[in-house]
Amino acid sequence: MLKRILKIAVTGPESTGKSRLAKEMAEHYNTVFVPEVAREYIDRLDRPYNQEDILKIAKWQINEEERWLQHAKHLLFCDTELIVTKIWSEVKYGNCDPWILQKIKENRYDLFLLCDIDLPWEADPQRESPHMREKLFDLYHDELTRRGLPFEVVSGTGRERLMNAIGLVEMVLVNNL
Fold first, then answer.
1. Per DSSP, what are the bridge partners of residue 152?
2. What residues contact residue 85 under an 8 Å CB cut-off, 6+ apart?
3. What distance in Å separates the CA atoms of residue 120 and residue 103, rounded to the nearest whole number?
4. For 38-81, how does the pLDDT look when each residue is reduced to its tens digit (9 = 90+)?
5. Nearest to 133 by CA among 116, 147, 149, 145
6. For 22-50, what is the mean pLDDT?
């Protein structure tokens, strides 16, 4: 029996299957996942987003994570986390709000599933960087490595990707029993 809820962050560049993977993982483990709020926030805007909006999105994402944690059964899957927000802000604006940087230090995850860029790019009005996938993947990999965070790269398409992710989560579960 697990002593606490384990938090698994699904992270990586745009169009790498984060949302689908978080949802499928939660279904597989009969628990809940924290949806990414950025898409909904931006859909509600009647103007282009700005850097202040990124901070609002980050705060909303953390609030949602705290809310869904109350409903989780052993595991909580998070479709994105604040390293995504940090990299987004730095790439778009050249810097990141100190609040986000502090929350990255405070908010711990038991595993980061870094989604590989081996899925085909899917165009979407909110996606901005099809030409930067490799560079962005490297930024995520470097950030997770530099911070010494527990992460594994998830690759494969369709069911193979899901099964690869399940195998990685199983290793975390075994180590936390």
1. 113
2. 38, 54, 57, 58, 61, 96, 100
3. 32
4. 989 999 999 999 999 999 999 999 999 999 999 999 999 999 99
5. 116
6. 95
- Distance from chain centroid for Cα 75: 15
Which of 86-125 are b and which e, b meaning 16 or more Cβ less than 10 Å from the residue's Cβ? bbbbeeeeeebbeebeebbeebebbbbbbbbbebeeeeee
Helix/strand/coil for 81: coil
Q: Which of 144, 16, 134 is nearest to 79 (CA)?
A: 16
For helices 98-106 and 82-93, the axis angle rounded to 10 degrees is 150
- Report in angstroms the alpha-carbon separations of 113 from 9, 27, 36, 39, 55: 6, 16, 15, 20, 23
Please tell me the pTM assigned to this model.
Answer: 0.93
Helices 51-69 & 82-93 angle (0-180, nearest 10):
180
Q: For the chain, how many residues are written?
A: 177
- Six token digits for residue 122: 């899917």
Which of 161, 177, 175, 151 lies closest to 25 in space, CA to CA?
161
**Residue whose pair of structure tokens reads 């909110």 in the numeric block:** 126
pLDDT tens per residue, range 89-120? 999 999 999 999 999 999 999 999 999 999 98
